[in-house]
Amino acid sequence: MISFKDPYHRCDGVTRREALRAGVLTAFGVTLADWLRPGVRAAIPSSARRAILLWLDGGPSHLDTFDLKPEAPQEVRGPFRPIATQTPGIQISEYLPLTAKRMNRLAIIRSMTSPLGEHNLGSHYLLTGYKPTPALHYPSYGSVLAEVRGGKHALPPYIAIPEAVPSAQEGYLPRECRPFAVGGDPSRPDFRVRDLETYPEVTPRRLQRRNEFRLAFDRFHHPAEEREASREAGFDQAQRLLASNEARKAFDLTQEKSTVRARYGSRTLGQACLLARRLLEAGVPFVTVTDRGWDTHDNLVLRLKEGYTGGSVGKVPTLDQAFAALLDDLAERGMLETTLVLVMGEFGRTPKLNPGGGRDHWPRVFSAVLAGGGIKGGQVVGKSDRRGESPAERPITPEDLACTIYHTLGIQASHELHTRDGRPVPVNQQGRLIKELL
Amino acid sequence: MHPVLLFVLAVPAVTPPPVDFQTEVIPVLTRAGCNSGACHGAAAGRGGLHLSLWGADPEGDYDALVHDQEGRRVHWIDPERSLLVRKPTADLKHGGGRRFDPDSPSATVLLNWIRAGAEKRSLRRLVRFEVEPQTFQAKAVGDAVPLRAIAHFDQGKPVDVTALAVFSAVDPTSIELNATGRATIRQRGQHTILVRFLDRIVPVRITLPLGERPVALGAVPRTNFIDDEILATLKILQLPVSAPADDLVFLRRVSLDLTGSLPTPAQIEAFQKDRRADKRARLIEALLDSAEFNDFWTLKWAKLLRVDSRTLGPEGAKAYQRWLHQQIARNTPLDRLARELICATGDGHTQGAANFARTSATAGAQAEMVSQLFMGARLRCANCHNHPLDRWTQDDYHGLSALFARLERGRVVRYSTRGEVIHPRTGEPAQPRIPGERFLEGNGEERALLARWLTDPNNPYFARAMVNRLWKEMMGRGLVEPVDDLRSTNPATHPALLDRLARDLVEHRYDLRHTLRVIALSSTYQRSSSTTASNRGDDRFYSHALEKPLSAEVFSDALTTVTGVSESFGTLPLGTRAIALHDISIPAPALDLLGRCSRQGECDEDSPRGGLTQMLHLINGRLLNDRLTAKEGRLQQVLRSQRSDVAIVQEFYLLALSRPLRPAEQAFWNRHFQDARGADERRQLFEDFLWGLLTSREFGTNH
Fold first, then answer.
1. Which of residues 426-445 of B touch A (CB under 8 A)?
2. Lower CB count within 10 Å: N or C terminus of chain B?
3. A228 in helix, strand or coil?
4. Domain hosting residue A238, numbered range
5. What is the ipTM for the molecules in this complex?
6. Taking CB atoms and an 8 Å cutoff, what residues of chain B touch A206?
């Protein structure tokens, strides 16, 4: 059945080409009826139903994590050594030993390339697949997924832990597609996702009435724009969430066994990943976990390895434990094959160490890591040159990565979304599918 | 006669025509993307070849191509075997793939140049670059226009360089460009194409009217030059305008914009009763003179200047804020304000302006702040390489940084004899420099010289950057967006208006209040925000007023005004207004959730309102609920009084929306309130009424 309910999806008939395509799809197990269901029109056969992005905010050093250069001169190779991984021939940082043991599950792209070496610009590019322009604010992956999947679920479709990255917002899409930021620090014993508990006396019936009154005000104010306003405000989403005890439970980390909590590590990133896993399991299609502090302009040893002088809780070991636990946990629950896991930041770091023992911004080549969701693990795609300066083989742009992420999640690059004034914009432009990954 | 021409005349006729390196060879490389930042134009070059970004340094590029690597890029004997030709045509393995075909005009230019001896000729110099047409008005989607790029050199006839110019659309989904410079329009609206040749960039504006048919704007009132410019654009775009805002809408709007405060019921009554023809102008004057204006505009400057006790200490932040407040209250001209900030030294705990230097940890950070704030320019890109879209070079960035390098930034800011900034290209200390202008001696005068240059009436940046920000504060959108990114490649929606506002500011001695007054008086500002079916989609041409969400501080204060319950801020006395809260480190979780600017980076706007996170807080959080239920709050008090339901509703309408209840609304509320049984239910109904009011768009926006 073709439905006309959702005005944001153009269900105005199927062209011959699409009908043929639908026929082809049947061979992959997608029926014609599926294909014609609203929201599925954008779909292509895919293996991932949901995704988690570990956003390493600030720009992680590719040379000290996933693309080490042991043969390069001291000022390039830096303080860390590579170790072998479970996959013969692939080496990563010595402070990623747990990740190394799971190399069969992940693919490393070592030839990501971008010209944008400023945080906000680079973040926007990597998180949307579009270069920033004053003409239009583009939506991030989670927002696009929220828009395309739509639906009226109890849990919000796009969640950010703990806060949203400013450049990973809804862009031109309705505010309903903005990530829900849980706030707070999930590693604290008193951590609670804010504002999930109802205020005394405010029963569901009263809440309903409050909203009726709010809408009445809006109707009297601007009679013509009511529908849009309701998608902007987020009330319906909030109400659905509050009405479901089960949905709210997904935010409650105390429901997890202490052994599980320990596995992810006691630090913020680990507990944030665990919370993300709970939410994914409960049906949230996209979760971003933001880990700040990767803008390592000085003292790589302290920041990446130690955390505090003499310690061993720097950015890299903390990531290692959380990432490995997440992969295992997803696999044990049978979710890894249907969950795309992404690990990246907005750019890499300068090949040459600076006088402060740090590295500065370097977008020309950097790494991104993908796992699960049908990604073929145990491989490296692309290659940087000897000093980690430029892609040596198979340069991959953020457009290519975006195209591949959408593909994996079952969204066609050419699928058109609409801005507030109704103009169509494709989900992705100029991206080429990274076929090796699939 | 020119020596080069003499030489050309002397060679035998079989030699191919001379090819000019700078004006012919470099454009080939630019067009093919060879010298772009993503390729050989990157700071470190690529694949062993480094070219200057977009060919900014022809001398260096010549050496790189002809002399470096023992000259193996150019094969003198057998030009076809030159790497310079074989790489980009992918005859040899090339990281960048095939950039052009072996028989393309581009390859021919390179070959002819090598055949003629690969000389560093400079036959001519580019004087002017233009594109025809400069503007084009399309009639329908799918219309196309061929663009012609024309170079005027210091000698010879103008040359058609369309084949050598680089065309790009600012919004590629609106304009489709092919390789011959033909532009096809894909969306209605006003679009920009940038055309680059050598170091020049020219914007071309292509417009397809947003409305279907011509509009009559003759009867629309015009108060000043703003209206002339705005209406001229609306006519081209065929956008009809909304009606003028009525008195009470205007009163609410201008009070919020100038003072961050809702009008009081007494002000509303007085304004309604006032029958004088110039009552709007009188109101504007009164607001510009008010104490709230000083508080509110101090807050705006404090955000821009990132006043923050975490960096300045509580004493420094307080002194800075006090100083800013004084300047706003005294109406210090903006040029003087800028000069004092740039030049200030002294003890940050007593000399407020000295904290400007203390806010930036390094000279580079200060250079970025100065350029962003006072020039509307993002010099930051030029830290590592020349700015790809603007005129700024690494010399400019590090030169401006060097100008602040000798400042000691402790509690006491002083000019010392030591301190330098290393230029990454030379490895030497950078010489102080006024960006885009000239180098300076490092003798202690350099900041004063910069300040004088910046605030000179002929300076092209300062006044424009200022009026663009003021326009955004009043109108909801900058003429240039983002407001700190003024450059020829990011043109204003109304370039002539930006120029006129800037000139007007200079002519009126950089008077902040003057510009705000001119804007507030315009019919453009005084238009209704109610849209018509034909101008609803307009978000930048001002056919109707744009709704602006109230900033976190203004919203919070408005809640206090309406509910009679103050928000508490740290240890500050209860009743302190959020707009008077000039130090970000004072804890105010509600303000953070409402999108208060964190002041850690540039904050041109608070994050937009809406979405689930905020809605959940409005539903379950204490921000609203505590105020609705507070015993001493306005609602619970009036409920205990003997007032009628309709009188209570009426009072809240006036307080929150600055207007009386309309008959249809009265009927609606009557219907809901009439079947309340008992005091508890009545109370709950009113709490829900007020919740609906405080979360409504009409309350939460300035419209």
1. none
2. N
3. helix
4. 197-248
5. 0.85
6. 684, 688
